[in-house]
Amino acid sequence: MKPFELIPPVKDYIWGGTRLRDEYGKKSSADKLAESWELSCHKDGQSIIAHGEYCGRTLSSYLEENPSALGTACARFEAFPVLIKLIDAKDRLSVQVHPDDEYAMSAEGEYGKTEMWYIVDCDDDAELIYGFREELTKDEFRRAIEENTLLDKVQRVRVKKGDVFFIEPGTLHAIGEGILIAEIQQNSNTTYRVYDYGRIGNDGKPRELHTEKAIDVTTLAPARPYSLCRPVVHEGRETQLLADCEYFTVSKQVITGESELCADERSFNHVLAVEGEGVLVCGGTEISMKKGSSVFVPSGTGAYNIKGSITVLITEIKE
Q1: Which are the contacts of 211, defined by CB distance < 8 A and separation ≥ 6?
Q2: Residues 148, 170: Cα–Cα separation, whole Å
């Protein structure tokens, strides 16, 4: 099996900007491009194969015909395990929370959402919301929502390019304005919106809040600090493990030359370029990459190389 580039579905949520089109080459007729779903088999938006034998087919269709391309580590999941996005928050997102698997399966019929944020770029004064400043009771949380004082209770964190946040289910959070994020998450589109600044949606109505479900699932405490491993430098590349959980493993490689990689029988690799330019080489296949490029490397492909001056996020599933 050979690697192939993916074309993402694009979402035009009201808080989006134009960077995904202008700087990352995403195609859409919409004015605002909020999210591009770079690796998706979700019913709300499917990645499309850009070239080769399966050109024009959905990734889901390809995997139905080639299930071994997922790898043995995916066998424990009932559905494709991850969803990977680029998110351009020109305006601030709603304050929200995601449920865990048990609650989401019961209430929504899909997985919950554990996710990781990598700050691809941001304004100098950009910040996000990450948990609470101090512990609250459910009654205090409800009262803060009803009395419009929730923003007085949340923890605000200044961010810079290259920062990483791990968002466990139950963590209240919100991406602030002027931030571009790569998000690696469980394959779920379940979000409980708590506060949305009184905004009106595309339908002309106030955007729906999900107060009761949010109160059910929110961890009413400061978010746990997240520590990163130190980068390892070796022969033209710097490698750093960003996340390693039961749902996904993500590493960043800053390549200045060449990096030798491998997609063995355990898992596919997904390669997302977030900066620079390069080429992915696998046997006789060469795929040019620039920031915004998204490449699926099937399980069992074996050795492949990335050459150039490029920064990539590599996602796989561990056994």
Answers
A1: 142, 145, 194
A2: 20
Q: What is the pLDDT of residues 33-58, one digit of tens each?
A: 999 999 999 999 999 999 999 999 99
At which residue do the structure tokens 């066998």 appear?
75
Is 122:159 a contact under the CB 8 Å cutoff?
yes
A 10 A CB-CB count for 95 gives 20
Q: What region, left, alpha or beta, does residue 186 occupy, with left being phi > 0 and alpha being psi -120 to 50 degrees? A: beta
| Residue carrying structure tokens 């691809």 | 120
Which residues are catalytically annotated? 193
Q: Cα dist. 73→45, 245, 249 in Å? A: 24, 13, 12
Question: How far is it, in rounded angstroms, from Cα 265 to Cα 74?
Answer: 11
Residue 140: Cβ within 10 Å count = 15
Per-residue pLDDT at 4: 97
Instruction: List the alpha helices (DSSP H) in 86-202.
Output: 101-107, 138-146
Look-up of token digits 């200044």: 158
- In 3D space, the residue among 246, 262, 249, 260 whose CA is nearest the CA of residue 298 turns out to be 262
- Which tokens belong to 208? 């729906």
Taking residues 123-146, what's their average pLDDT?
96
Cα 13 to chain centroid distance, Å, stands at 16
Asked whether 257 and 237 are in contact (CB, 8 A), the reply is: yes
User: What stretches of 152-232 show up as alpha helix (H) in DSSP?
Assistant: 211-217
Residue 108 φ/ψ, nearest 5 degrees: -125, -15
State the Cα–Cα distance between residues 306 and 319, nearest whole angstrom: 25
Indicate the average pLDDT of the chain.
Answer: 95
Of 55, 58, 27, nearest to 41 by C-alpha is 58
Q: What is the mean pLDDT of residues 195-224?
A: 89
